[in-house]
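Protocol step 4 of 6: record predicted structures for both targets in the notebook before any analysis. Target 1:
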Amino acid sequence: MQLSPDERVAKLARWKSPPSAAEEQRLERARRMVTRAVQQHPPFAGLGLSVEAKGSWANNTNVSSDSDVDIKVEFTQRAYQGSSASGMNYWELALSPNRYAGPWTPEVFRQELGVALKGVSSAVDATHNVAFYVPDVPGSRPSTDVVPCFTYIRQPGWGHPAAQGTVVFTKDGKHIVNWSHQQLINGREKNKRTNHRYKFAVRALKAIENDLVQLGEIEDLPSYFMECLIYNVPDSVLTHGSLDTAFERALSHLRQQFSFWWGHPDALVEPNEIKKLFQSGQKWKTDDARRLLNAAWHYLNYG
């Protein structure tokens, strides 16, 4: 299936708009729900817990009011340290108890956060590997993924600056390092530099991916992946001409990055500018990007 030029321009115009005030209110209700759960739970009294939205809702790049909200609950009084942007090695994990002698292990914190959430919602699903899932309340707040995490300090070595992120210990015994604060700040700056074209392009590519999945053209991909791809488009490309022209050039630029002959996907980064876009442990491969971009180019009837 291909869109006509008029259909394409109409869709791009629709995707230009950021979340409405009503959607922002729904996000705030989700954040308040989690904050209330944490504040009312007696074992958490006096602890340094930070409750913040992260992901597409926080970054104003969500394309549907039905999408989940991501809320992190960060335990700030216990910090883990590692040399990698992606996580800790065996020895770094083994040494971590030496820096903290308190009772709050990842297992205990996860358990208590689950109890706290059930104090404000009886429908909490605690079976997921990473986050607690709190179903939506129609007309009030969206479904919410609540992520228990700890402060993570990356110390890459002499001559390289340290960075602070978060680490999530999953139920299957693994851990995931996130850099949501850097993602938020860098995204805002790029959006300012491009006269709001950056987040427009992110929403557009996410919406196109949704269409392509429904049409059976590609497999479903994490929405964060689309944000990562657009972040690597130069500002000058995103600000060139009309929305239609800018998006066409953005797709063209990205397709070149994945050319078998002259592409350099290994140079691409996540919006946090700390992690490479393609490395071990990621939920996507270069072939996923290639299929997505080629299908989007054909669907939008460019070229």
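Target 2:
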Amino acid sequence: MSSTDRHLSSLMRQIATRDEVELIHPFAEWQTFGALAYVAECYGFRYAGVRLVGKQRIVHVTLVRDTAPWARQRAAANTAAFPDPGAGRPVPGMYLGSLTPVPEAQPDVDLLTALIRHEALEAAVNRRQMLAMAWGSAALFLLMAPLTGKYAVLLPLAVLTPLGLLGALRINASRRAKLARRLVAAGCTAVPDGSGRVRYVRPAPRTV
């Protein structure tokens, strides 16, 4: 069974039996998450968020069943059009046997992909913690240098370690800003959540 078939089989089992779908594919590309989320939304779910779990920071994408009238209408229309979706069979918005979107679905998949990537990058970094690690590591290496006499090793580390951490923060912020511009251009609205982070709310999807 191909990876596409495995992804679709897992997704359709969850759609049929649960009110919450969780996508967990450690080696999946972002576009794969976007495509799977799109298919789930076609069957009455809506994207809820991203978590990074464990030391490996594995991406978990969550969707929940949507009770809004337009979501139920969309699910009914797709159930009628694709009554037996799954591995090796047609699913909404994808070319047969793949998770490659058809042209009509591509903009929605791209938007979901950008949203998932933005929230994953947001979850990947704790700015306050990273800054504390950067300056704390510099202070530690500077303190250890005269105590151990290993100036040639510890002084470069006192400079390079915080620079690396600060550089990672800057790269993360730059990528999030680029994705945020794409989301706003697509009609999304920035809304602060309870933790102070900004989430982007999409305009209502099409009903079919």
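Step 5 preliminary note on target 2. The chain has one domain: 3-127+169-201. The longest strand covers residues 45-53.
Proceed to step 6 after PI sign-off.
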